[in-house]
UniProtKB/TrEMBL annotation:
Keywords: DNA-directed RNA polymerase, Plasmid, Transcription. This is DNA-directed RNA polymerase sigma-70 factor. Interacts transiently with the RNA polymerase catalytic core formed by RpoA, RpoB, RpoC and RpoZ (2 alpha, 1 beta, 1 beta' and 1 omega subunit) to form the RNA polymerase holoenzyme that can initiate transcription. The keyword Transcription applies. SUPFAM superfamilies: NTF2-like (SSF54427), Sigma2 domain of RNA polymerase sigma factors (SSF88946), Sigma3 and sigma4 domains of RNA polymerase sigma factors (SSF88659). GO terms for cellular component: DNA-directed RNA polymerase complex. Residues 6-69 form the RNA polymerase sigma-70 region domain. The keyword Transcription applies. It comes from Nostoc cf. commune SO-36.
Amino acid sequence: MNRLDLFNQYRSLLFAIAYRMLGSVTEAEDILQETWIRWQRTESVVQSPKAFLSTTVTRLCIDHRRSAQIKREQYTGTWLPEPLIAESTEVKDCAELAESLSFAFLMLLECLSPTERAVFLLREVFDYDYEAIAKTVGKSIPSCRQIIRRARQHLVLRRPSIAPISHDRDILVEQFLDCWNHGDLQGLIALMAEDVTFWSDGGGKVVAAQKPLSGCLKVARFLVAIRRSRLTPMLISQVAVVNSQLGVINIVDEKLHSTFSFEFTGDSIRSIFAVVNPEKLGAVKK
């Protein structure tokens, strides 16, 4: 098998690691391109192409996150990941992998350092053993175990539990879209938790809420106002798989205008993540 075939064999894994590390389709693709270049230039015999490629991707992502920190701090408004939109409304990933793509989970990972994030993802999401992780990030096995413990503690403090995806929540999204399409204020309120938060990422490119909106009444009124305002373009909204979970995409003049992703608590919507930044929507990966 030649090098191109080997690279393509592991490409989906490499993208999965890079996207979860960076939360950006564009940046993940750039990392894969650099990995391919380094793979081509390698002259020595590689015993394990998978280990070499995943190590290269992970180290490049760690370096990229460190260099991108200043840009994140200067970002206009709320930063959200670039959405991944599937062609079908059927979630094919296993529950663990699907959850690790959710906006809520990716946002949660932002509290970790680049190395902590890499170690946590390789162990908890991709099930790498500690020996492989240690070689990948250039640390000892005991150090990696300590990083995992510390990362878990950080995440538990911010989000005590991560609930799995369920069919009932798909129904909640469909009900949300129906109420939103009809401007049903009370219906929206009934679907949301009392302390629901609406996050909007316009990146300074388009009009979007600069700060999160909190409270079911405030969020519901805002959503209804979007539908009723003459300043807002006519949206054609439909359910779609966004980051391996059922969400909503909004179309204007046959072009993607925005995406909504959701986080749930019990049988209510806890968070809504709206990506409006056109630069992020132009890079959606299906």
